Amino acid sequence: MFKVYKDNPALGSQEAYVPGLTPDYVSKTYGIPVDEVAKLGSAENPFGPSPRAQEVVMSARKMDNYPDWTAGALREKIAAKYGYRPDQVICGSGETEIFPWIIRAFSSKGDKVLMFVPAFPIYHMIAQSEGRVPVMIGMGDDLDFKWDDYLAAIRPDVRIVFLTNPHSPTGRLIPNERIRQVCKAAKDQLVVLDEAYIHYSNTNGGMDLLKEFDNLIVMRTFSKVYGLAGLRIGFGLSAPEIITPLMHLKPTWNMGQLQTAGAIAALDDDAYVKKTIEAIAEMRAYVVAGIGAMKGRYSIVGEPCSNFFLLKIDDPSLDSTTLFNELLKRGVIVKDGSVSFIGLGKRYMRIDVSLKKHMDRLLKSLTEIRGVP
Q1: What own/partner pairs with CB < 8 Å and gap ≥ 24 does 40-43 have?
Q2: How sure is the predictor about 2, in pLDDT bands with cuts at 50, 70 and 90?
Q3: Fold of 23-36+271-368
């Protein structure tokens, strides 16, 4: 059979992205009522979609017409909300559609792309599939950032530098001063600041840094705090010189009517966003305290500032895959660090913060599970 990836060995030679399991799968496999399954592996909003967005999408009309190929109305709305111009905004079907355009526009085959590891796997997967070389800087013993190593790795053959804030999978928040250091070190490189989870940090994030650095693009998504993961909407803000080539690379009609209408409405749903952020912060403190009482068995990495946290398995008789499967049997879906993140190993699980009933199910399950004596 002809292999379409014959000139690119990265295609087909490695495992594709591993998404979180679905409640339907767990319900059918283990006989647990689907509404009792705690889905804590995809960082979704437990309150569902933004009500304003849902209302607009459900009442949408003119679906027989082609959308504005530039997503102009949404770009104008995003620009107005954050104090920039529409020509500084690029929209895509999630951040993950935009990342390949960035790789293609600002690097060539064989160029290097820098990131901390563990990291969102899409970064290195896209880089490899596009013929670029991921440069992966490991983190410290407590999965803290090794900033001296990272800054030293920003060399001329590195063309793109990724940062995730809050970081995934640890949930650690990167101070803006550190981001400034990276942007200054990357004089001739593009810094991609992925702020998919920034709302949960209760900070303004790095939007204001765009006024200081023209080698920075700030990425955000509607999949998390706005609850619109199923609509697939993401955007980037940067200097027009960065956005213009991306507009030439993007598919002509990549954003449909429902995507743009829903996103525009969600940007005005401040009450829903506030409710979500406050609820997640309350449950984050609740579950961190609960796990803190399980000393010797589990612990939390750092001080998470996102809608997930990284659980460390301190019990030497357990590993992440065993714990993952035991949690599934009890109706709890999480991310096995050894499967989902390069460089994380068998001692960690990324777990979402969700509703109290799901946090209680998680805590009860963690208490019940025992390793091999």
Answers
A1: 40/308, 40/332, 40/333, 40/334, 40/351, 40/352, 40/354, 40/358, 40/362, 41/333, 41/334, 41/335, 41/350, 41/351, 41/352, 42/229, 42/352, 43/197, 43/224, 43/306, 43/307, 43/308, 43/352
A2: very low
A3: Aspartate Aminotransferase, domain 1 (3.90.1150)
**264: which 2 tokens?**
């525009």
307 burial level (CB within 10 Å; 0-12, 13-18, 19+): buried
pLDDT value of position 111: 97
Q: Hunting for tokens 């689907």 — which residue is that?
A: 34
pLDDT in tens, 118-142: 999 999 999 999 999 999 999 999 9
Strands 158-164 and 190-194: parallel
Query: Model confidence over 180-226: pLDDT tens digits?
Result: 999 999 989 999 999 999 999 999 999 999 999 999 999 999 999 99
Domain limits, the chain: 23-36+271-368, 51-269
CA 117 → CA 22, 138, 319, distances in Å?
A: 26, 5, 20
Question: Does domain 51-269 sit in CATH 3.40.640.10?
Answer: yes
Measure the CA angle with vertex 354, ends 353 and 357; round to 5°.
125
Q: What is the pLDDT of residue 371?
A: 67
pLDDT, one tens digit per residue, over 10-34 is: 655 555 666 778 999 999 999 999 9
Asked if pLDDT for residue 373 goes beyond 90, the answer is no
Alpha-carbon span 300 to 366, nearest angstrom: 13
